[in-house]
From TrEMBL:
Gene3D superfamilies: 3.30.160.250, lambda repressor-like DNA-binding domains. It comes from the Bacteria. One of its GO terms (molecular function) is DNA binding. InterPro entries: Lambda_DNA-bd_dom_sf, TTHA1013/TTHA0281-like. Signal peptide: none annotated. This is Antitoxin HicB.
Length: 138
C-alpha cells in the first residue's frame, strides 16, 4: 500500500496544519496532533480526487522517511496505481471501457476513489493493461 509522509506545522490559533511533501495540494487541519493525524487521510484523499478528476498521474510516495505517515487503504492504493498505469500507457476512459466491455459509467466508478469497487473488477482492469494485481499480508 502507498504511505505518504506528512508534516505537522503549529498554527497561530493552536491548531496543526497537515501538509504532504509529495502531494502539495493535500492539506488538513487538526485541533491537536492526534486529530491532525486522523484528518490527514481525508485531506490526502480530497487532493487525490482532484488528480482523478483531471486525469493526472499521482506522484508516488518518496522514499524519504518520516515519523508521520498516512497509508492509503488497499482499494484506494489499487485505484491510484491503475490510474497511473492508464496514463502511462495513454489509455483513455473510452478505451478502457472497450477493453473491459462495459459502459462508461462503470469506468467512472472504477476511477472514483469514493466508490467501493469490487476487487475482481480492478484485477480485470489491471489485466487489460498487461499488469496483474498483487495482494499480500505483511
Amino acid at each position: 500500500m502507498l504511505s505518504y509522509r506528512y508534516e505537522l506545522t503549529p498554527d497561530d490559533n493552536g491548531t496543526f496544519l497537515v501538509t504532504f511533501p509529495d502531494i502539495p495540494e493535500a492539506v488538513a487541519v487538526g485541533e491537536d496532533k492526534e486529530s491532525a493525524a486522523i484528518e490527514a487521510l481525508d485531506g490526502l484523499l480530497c487532493a487525490l480526487d482532484g488528480y482523478f478528476e483531471d486525469r493526472r498521474a499521482i506522484p508516488l510516495p518518496s522514499t524519504e522517511q518520516g515519523s508521520d505517515t498516512v497509508t492509503l487503504p488497499a482499494l484506494e492504493t489499487a485505484k491510484v496505481l491503475l490510474l497511473n498505469e492508464m496514463i502511462a500507457q495513454g489509455v483513455k476512459k473510452a478505451e478502457m471501457a472497450r477493453r473491459l466491455d462495459v459502459h462508461m459509467p462503470q469506468i467512472d466508478r472504477l476511477l472514483d476513489l469514493r466508490h467501493n469497487t469490487k476487487i475482481d473488477f480492478l484485477e480485470k482492469a489491471a489485466e487489460k493493461l498487461g499488469k496483474h494485481l498483487s495482494i499480500s499480508f505483511a
